[in-house]
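Practice set, problem 2.
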Amino acid sequence: MANAILKGLADKKNAGVREASCDLLQILVEQGLGNAVEPFFYEKLMPTIVAETFADKEKVVREAAVQAVKSVVQVSSSWSVPIFLPILLEQIRTAGKWQVKTGSLEILNELVVSAPEQMARLMPDIIPTMTDAIWDTKSDVKKAARATLTTLCSLVSNKDIEKFIPALMYVGLSLPPSLLPPYATRC
């Protein structure tokens, strides 16, 4: 199954086949195969879908890819988050195409809803990447990163620092990472 989906995603001449491959993954997940597709999805499909299909030239294919990944994330075990979060964070940091970054940020937003405890535990890994993303050169990425960072901050459950989150967000969003002290980017 994974090979058939990968073959469809690799068909550069037919956008309909690429979109159908994303739709097939989403249908499989929605029909109850969510946990069954996790192993091959994270190992074989996730890197390809995020790095390549999120940046497809056809908007319908990009949207289908993001929706397919969202479907998988919604039904996945929260214990799988540490497996695929590094893939998303790496793409947010290094992708050359802004669509890959915004798609990855959309998936992070979905993870806050579907696996809040795991995402809260992984905040030390997430925040440095988000700090850089809010200063991306593309305005679409900046806007998505700021919205995602706001959503991520909703995971803070420490009543002692909860009241300082707006001030920290303001400082973090108003100063580029190069002007922050070294300890400020490593929360």
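Problem 2, part (b): a different protein.
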Amino acid sequence: MASKVYPAGLKYLTDGTTSYTSDTIKIMLVNSSYTYSDSHDHVDDVSANELSGTGYTGGFGGSGRKTLASKTITVNSTHIEFDAADITWTGLNAGTIGGAILIEEITNDASSALLAFIDPTDLPTNGGDVTLVVNSGGFMQIANA
């Protein structure tokens, strides 16, 4: 499956509910049992599939959810790029990573917005460090049709 922007997340980003550059945007990891759905809009819709184990404490405010640093939005003639610095989890042994989800963490999982689903190749964790390398096009793009 390809990476996708959640429809509710796109709404939040475009109507000003969520500010990518100034709000607390985090990334959470989910296991390979998670299946993306356009109907998912808040973290409580996906939290049952969040990783848990050594190096990753899930849940609202958990240390496994990493805050994005160096967030930028770049506009060019074909699309808008949402970028940030690479993220590393140290000593991660928490099952198989099936996806990463950009979220705006607010006051609890029921009110924290899902923004985008990143679908990497499934990666079993084994106690080593895991780095999510953000490609040169950013985490997500909104294309000019």
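Answer key, part (b): The radius of gyration is 14 Å. Helices lie at 7-15.
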